[in-house]
Amino acid sequence: MPDRLSSLDASFLYLEDATTPMHVGSVMVFDPPDDGFDYDRLVQLISQRIAFVPRYRQRIRQIPGRLANPVWVDDEDFDVTYHVRRSALPRPGTDEQLQEFVARIQPRPLDRQRPLWEVYLVEGLEDGRFAIVTKSHQALVDGVHAVDIAHVIVDDDPAAEGLVTDTWRPSPEPSDIELLTSALVDAVRRPSEIVENVRGGIADVKAVGGRALSAAGHVASTIARTAARPAPTSPLNASVGEARRYVMIGTDLDDYKKVRSALARGHFADDVTINDVVLATIAGAFRSWLLTRGEAVHSGTTVRAMVPVSVYDDENHTRLGSRLKACFVDLPAGEPGASMRLHQVAFAMRQQMEGGQAVGAETLAELAGFAPPTLHSLGARLGSAVSRRLFNVVITNVPGPQQALYAGDAKMVATYPVMPLAKGQGLSIGLTSYDGGVYYGLNADRDAMPDIDVLGQGIVDALGELLESKSSQR
């Protein structure tokens, strides 16, 4: 019988509405190969690669009477060309035009009657470049049966194209009777689950949401130990509409390393990480953004960020779950000194990582169905499950490969995450380090943050301020 969605995976379907579509995305920018890259080539590439991930040819089927959670069934009419779409910018397309395109297509909900993913080939970028924009539903990307579609498209070997033999044939879709029978069999094995589902009925959204929030109890207690107050009031927490703004910011990884290495002359060298430099950069950007808005900024002004952190373990590098922590950090937006912001962030992160206040992977699994292959997916799941009163913004920082990746033989030159917004969350920040760069994707509610470009420029300026601060200390 088909695989059944877990209750928490199903919650991402039940809690989704027009203002909070629950899919993650990415914007990958490529240099074309000498022989070019077109729509037919992308369709062929994806058709071959999804042989590794059969879930991308499955859709969700509800159980009659909602006696159990939905199941995954093979899409007997699967049409890859429905999911892979073609668009273009007026040549020469600028990054600003690409950002506006992403802001318009990312909030659109995915078709529930088909596999829950889409890919757009965007042609016409300046300098001959093109972009691939992806969307994958959080119910789909569970890290066990499916990774994000972006990971399916790119590879570190340009010669890998065409090496997959696809023998997939769809299984016949089960009838309503078969679905009901499988639900009853599961009920015998887990009787409490069917009682819960029947009792839920029309109130599925509240029931599942309540389970997700109750599972967040450990997270809430963690924050209580860190700061005995809720998240500070912030313009970042606002009513969310259907429209979005999106900004891409590219920076140089070496700049963060320079800030970090300059501390080798001080007493805090062992205590500061590249991730701390990133968070201090974002803290500085928030400071300048708040000031341009005319907000009251004083020495105690903070922005609370939920930050999933990767903890590397050379002896256990194959177990991603054992290397993940989620920290809640008050970013010191009120601190005028760039260097002092960095030390305050580093101290706060060290307290949580070493003081037992970071949330372990086991708790994350209980909270949001954890198993995703990337911290971006983790951050999206956490941001959807945890009350906005506990934090102001989600920041996911994913260390990516430091060698070039390819779609076919087209080299990827940049990759920007697109993190979804949860209820009351006006902004999400994702960033990925890749091949010598650090790439930010700022996704925001269109009405709540018409000045998102100011925050983007603030990231560039804050990084420059840190570089100048460190240079002056040498």
TrEMBL record:
SUPFAM superfamilies: CoA-dependent acyltransferases (SSF52777)
Name of the protein this chain belongs to: Diacylglycerol O-acyltransferase
Phylogenetic lineage: Bacteria, Bacillati, Actinomycetota, Actinomycetes, Micrococcales
GO cellular component: plasma membrane
Membrane-crossing segments per the record: none
Family: Belongs to the long-chain O-acyltransferase family.
GO process terms (BP): biological process involved in interaction with host; glycerol metabolic process; response to hypoxia; response to nitric oxide; triglyceride biosynthetic process
Single GO MF annotation: diacylglycerol O-acyltransferase activity
InterPro entries: Acyl_transf_WS/DGAT, O-acyltransferase_WSD1-like, O-acyltransferase_WSD1_C, O-acyltransferase_WSD1_N
EC number(s) reported in the record: 2.3.1.20
O-acyltransferase WSD1 C-terminal domain boundaries: 321-466
O-acyltransferase WSD1-like N-terminal domain mapped to chain residues: 5-278
PANTHER family reported in the protein's UniProt record: O-ACYLTRANSFERASE (WSD1-LIKE) FAMILY PROTEIN, WAX ESTER SYNTHASE_DIACYLGLYCEROL ACYLTRANSFERASE 4-RELATED
Catalytic activities: an acyl-CoA + a 1,2-diacyl-sn-glycerol = a triacyl-sn-glycerol + CoA
Highest taxon of source: Bacteria
Pathway given in the UniProt record: Glycerolipid metabolism; triacylglycerol biosynthesis; Lipid metabolism
Annotated keywords: Acyltransferase, Glycerol metabolism, Lipid biosynthesis, Lipid metabolism, Transferase
A Pfam family this chain is assigned to: WS_DGAT_C
